[in-house]
Fold this sequence. Notes:
Blueprint: E1 2-3, E2 6-7, H1 18-69, E3 73-78, E4 83-89, E5 97-104, H2 105-108, E6 112-117, E7 125-128, E8 138-144, E9 151-156, E10 162-167
Amino acid sequence: MRFNGYDVKLGRNKGFTLIELIVAVALLGISLAIAAPSFNNYRHKVNFREAARNFSSEIALYRQRAIAENIRYQIVISDANNNYIVQAEDPDNLGTFITLGTRSFADKSPLVSINSTTFTGTPPTINIQPRGTINPPGTVELRHARLGEATATVTVNIMGRIRVDYDKM
Length: 169
């Protein structure tokens, strides 16, 4: 059939050929093979940052509660169990603490662990005073098993300011 001087073939172009489909699938497979390791590394970094931010947010939360309720709080850090225990002072029996709960880094990201801490005590303890101060100040360093030398350091100063620093990420 001719249309304005051009040959037009109707009914011949019915879809993709098998070769076109194989080429498209191969290109998709190659691009996924290139992108998958980068995506996994990105996911590990996000989980690691989230674990560090959750820990710092927990400290800030109990600092605010100590001010509001006018009682002391403690966060007891357990390196061996890779967790921390939150305790509140018993208002009826000052000097004794009631355990509010145990939080584990493995709950959010099983690859995150406590590397070291500079808080004093056995076990290391973050003492939150009713004025909102932290006594003594210190740091907790977290490490991720899949990110090599990458660390997140949660620093708490005496005034209760909390900072998270990331290294080698």
